[in-house]
Design a protein that fits this description.
mainly alpha
């Protein structure tokens, strides 16, 4: 299978893959497998730094729509 991506996405993939010491092909294949085979919406962290970064995230609940924050809703 061949997937055509934009030059900007290709450059970002190459940069990210070099930072992790893997080929762009291997990194893209891993992320696609994480999403389509494992049902993940985000790729698994590749190293200790990424695992630490992800662990710092806090669940903030559900975001509000613009309609929820309208003038009439705020007054209620």
């Amino acid at each position: 299978m061949t997937i055509t991506i934009s030059p900007g996405l290709e450059a970002a993939l190459i940069e990210r893959s070099h930072g992790h010491g893997v080929s762009p092909h291997d990194l893209a294949a891993k992320w696609l497998a994480d999403i389509f085979q494992n049902g993940s919406t985000t790729p698994e962290p590749l190293d200790a730094w990424e695992r630490r970064l992800v662990s710092l995230g806090l669940p903030c609940g559900v975001g509000h729509t613009h309609e929820d924050l309208g003038r009439e809703k705020i007054r209620d």
